[in-house]
Amino acid sequence: SQGAQFTTISPVHEVTRAELQLAHTEQFISDIHYKSSMIAQAAEMYMLRFVPSSFLQSALVTPFKWHTSGTVLAAHMALKYGWAINLGGGFHHASSARAQGFCFFADITMAIQYLWKYVDEDLNFMIIDLDAHQGNGYELDKFIMSLRQKKKVYVLDAYNKDIYPMDEMAQNFINTKVELLPNTSDDEYLKQINESIGKALKEFSPSLIIYNAGSDILNGDPLGGLNITEQGLFERDRVVFNFAKNYGIPIVMLT
């Protein structure tokens, strides 16, 4: 609205080791800091394995740490104030023991574990992942959660079924799965998104919606394989935020 107020805030530090430990194994934390091969795998640029790790830390790992810290901060702010957007994050292919698909840290899992530990262990989370790719990272993290925690995380994942990562193991931990055909266009896409979110919110009552809003659904994206216009993308985001508003649920958007 015309009178809306927006405040820009930034993390005061990159994600800490203690925060990394909420989502990652000790072996992973060590490898991502000292092994060029791990960083090369995450970046999908295998020649980087021959680059000194110290250089890759400053060029790649540290920026991703700031993005990850932004996700944790934005999730906390959304819970407190109703909504927040992190201009970054959404690293949905990273899991507790693996970095892949341009995703270095499991920021979605980390935000959930952070809020359980420092705010309220009874919080319920709904992940709405509308990136063109399946979010297999946090789905695999859900697999290793306790039964109690599993029940507190609901996953809605809409993705092009014919592209990376096609992770069948991870798909077992999706509550509402929307498998899109290649070249899906606006009308069909928005119909499926509307229906699936409506269904999900009838099945589960979240304390916070974590919305991974990938823009790789746009037509012409070399990796997404869908056929969504800019107007379709804007409408998608409006639909998600309207659901959150109408149900009175705080929402954090990752971009």
TrEMBL record:
GO cellular component: histone deacetylase complex
Gene3D superfamilies listed in its UniProt record: Histone deacetylase domain
CDD domains on file: HDAC_classIV
Signal peptide range in chain numbering: none
One GO-annotated biological process of the protein: epigenetic regulation of gene expression
InterPro entries reported for this sequence: HDAC_classIV (IPR044150), HDACs (IPR000286), His_deacetylse_dom (IPR023801), His_deacetylse_dom_sf (IPR037138), Ureohydrolase_dom_sf (IPR023696)
Segments crossing the lipid bilayer: none
Domain of life of the organism encoding this protein: Eukaryota
Histone deacetylase domain residues: 10-254
GO molecular function: histone deacetylase activity, hydrolytic mechanism
Keyword Metal-binding: no
Protein name: Histone deacetylase domain-containing protein
